Amino acid sequence: MKVEGIKFQRDIYLLLGRLRSAHGDFVSGEELSRTQKISRTALWKKINFLRELGYRIEGHQSKGYKLDLSPDIPYPWEIYPERDSIWKNIIYYKTIQSTNTQANLLASQGAPHGTVVIAEKQTGGRGRVGRIWDSPSAGNVYISLILRPDIPLYLSPQFTLAAGVGVARTVEEVTRLKPELKWPNDLLFDKKKFSGILTELNSETDRVNFIIVGIGINLNADLEDYPEYLRSEITTLKVATSKEYNRNRFIQRLLDNLQSMFVALTEKGFTHVKRKWEEYFGMKDEIVIISSEREKLRGRAIGIDNSGAFLLRLENGSIRRVLSGDVNYLRRE
Ligand code: BTN
What we know:
Layout: E1 6-7, H1 10-21, H2 29-35, H3 40-52, E2 56-60, E3 64-69, H4 76-79, E4 89-96, H5 99-108, E5 115-122, E6 141-147, H6 156-175, E7 180-182, E8 186-189, E9 192-204, E10 207-217, H7 237-241, H8 247-268, H9 270-280, E11 287-291, E12 296-304, E13 310-314, E14 319-322, E15 326-329
Parallel strand pairs: 4-5
Antiparallel strand pairs: 1-4, 2-3, 5-6, 6-10, 7-8, 8-9, 9-10, 11-12, 11-15, 12-13, 13-14
Helix pairs in contact: 6-8, 6-9, 8-9
The structure holds biotin.
């Protein structure tokens, strides 16, 4: 099924900018149509388009238009970066099956490096190893980034870890609380998950064509927005801190931090990312269980190595390098 997204529109961005600069006062229709270089009818159409998207704009015959309220919805012009940024191609969907699936499709049709696919709600959100990512429309973040780094295949896990640091840093800046990173890329507060990252690769022999980094963050949802069986395992930033967050500002910071981490990775190398990742790693020296399809391992968590693999000290003292699996704290009696 073909789904239409909403793309960035410069005229809408400029129109909102002018209305906002009046700080709740009217701006005359004459001025708006002159500065936007459009007819009064075209202006009226744009105002109505914005009203349909949830903006409250008062219209007065002689005074013009006044912006009373903007919805906290990540339309591309709301999260469009102000300064130098790679995130210039943003597409928003009200409902989509999965932003990762859509990003894969767009990337295979040639969408550029730095494309951002974002949705209000996912009907088939996907998690790691074929799990479901419950994605209610409740003020959360569902976002997928298309990256086209010129790197060999074996370096791609480092992008996932760099993304994890970008999310952790944003959460810490916004909440003033330090989240925990759980390898490979879950984010936790008090051992409860509020964010996960699903990285998908498209490659040829040993070069990467594109990477999709899909990030889900339970931001403003309540536990009641999730099915009952999940409620004891997860949390949201709202539940963990008893505060609601401005989603658009959160996403802008997130995109900034992700870009900084990807730049650091490509320009300074993985050791820089690794150091940051370890600052948020909460399992160091803890006894953990790693479960993969093949085996279950028990040991003490050491951290990650220079390629991003997990290091575990087994009970016989040897060190095991783990490339995939789920790490969990050993439940203590
Ligand atoms: C995990 O923890 O298992 C990874 C979860 C990743 C969820 C995000 S939400 C946005 C993007 N679209 C998807 O379908 N999945 C990722």
